[in-house]
Amino acid sequence: MGLRRLHERSTWFCVFLSVLLMITSYEANGKSIKENSNTCSRRISTSFMIRESSAAGNSTRRRSSSCDIFQGRWVFDNSYPLYNLTTCPFIRREFNCIKYGRPDSLYLKYRWQPSYCTLPRFDGKDFLTRFKGKKIMFVGDSLSLNFWQSLVCLLHFAVPRANIIQKTTNTTNIYTFQDYGVSVILYHSLLLVDTESEKIGRVLKLDSIKNGGDVWKNMDVLIFNTWLWWGRRGIKQPWDYVQHGNKISKDMDRMLAFRLALTTWAKWVASDVNSTKTKVFFQGISPSHYNGHDWNQPGIKSCSNQTEPLSGCSYPAGLPSVTTIVKDVLSKVLSKNIVHLLDITTLSQLRKDAHPSAFNGFKNMDCTHWCLPGLPDTWNQLLYAQLSSLFP
Fold first, then answer.
1. Tally of CB atoms within 10 A around 162
2. CA atoms in the 13 A half-sphere facing the CB of 69
3. Which of the following is catalytic: 77, 123, 126, 142?
């Protein structure tokens, strides 16, 4: 009898422990889900128009949606990529990962899914029709080149037989889709503000933005980008001296220099750009992936062999500190609806798998730029969504 009672007590004790563990697990999971939901629920009012096909397929209707299109997660989508290597002959060797031997292809199959809405699939014909006769210019460094080349590929895929005129100058690369009168232009500018050659050497002028300004302000759409070169030193540094006001120095705090330059650019936009004609965007900071500690893989020193994006909607290392400067400076003009931030940082941080790594024409380890097809195509989807609301 004693053994039977002991067995019954043991059984009830096991049941009690099981129930307790279930409750604890439920509460822990609930907390985790709630925290994850809170992480994913940050909203910024970013309005855009979604064009949808009717059931008959012969007309379209427009539906307005407002959500933070930059907050969400990456989901597998077998219908991606939006174009392929054979349909875009313009991909440079820096970004042509497939041509230079990348063996995996899973990185091509991910679609960005915002938390509270669905991005319209990029429609190249609609883009060209909507922006007929307009000039769209990317201004910045090689990451702007990455972005610009993605748009050229997306448009060429939509109209493969279109008459395209190419023109290159010292500062610009231009692709004009003649049938639509749409020009997609890259203007090479590492720092946005001016660098002048003087007797003492190359002087970075944090208060001056005259070299490209007269060209930029005549565009219909401007997408600016800078940051990559602000931390360079030694032979890669693109200046010898820095000038702010009347003071010329050999060097200064790079974050401060960036803030001062970006403020000069923002003031130029506010004073020189006709916002009723020209729509201005700033491309958020594009991340690099050289330190696995940033994504909870200590010991990893590059993006090599990374084949999948991070799950979830937040990056373990958080945002780079420079994004605070960008948002702080832009807020002074964003309130006037003059500049629209393409806030691509977090969604790009999640794509540790999307860099060329060693699969590029230079065979060097590149965890800064991005494969094409690839992540910049999503940047263009986000640009397309925002432009659609500005040019309904």
1. 17
2. 25
3. 142
- Which one of the listed residues 141, 369, 377, 388 is annotated catalytic? 369
Q: Across all residues in the chain, what is the average pLDDT?
A: 87
Question: Measured between alpha carbons, how far is 177 from 161 in angstroms, rounded to an integer?
Answer: 10
| CA-closest candidate to residue 150, choices 34, 286, 307 | 286
Of 132, 145, 154, 33, the C-alpha closest to 84 is: 154
Q: Is 289 a catalytic residue?
A: no
369 as an active site residue: the answer is yes
> For residue 85, is pLDDT > 90?
no
Given 194, 294, 366, 377, which residue is catalytic? 366
Joined tokens for residue 254: 């790079």
Indicate yes or no: pTM above 0.70: yes
Query: pLDDT tier at 65 (50, 70, 90 boundaries)?
Result: low
pLDDT at 94: 96
311 among known catalytic residues: no
Q: How many helices (H) and strands (E) does the chain have?
A: 8, 15
CA separation for the pair 57, 52 (Å, rounded): 9
Q: Are the CB atoms for 94 and 361 separated by under 8 Å?
A: yes
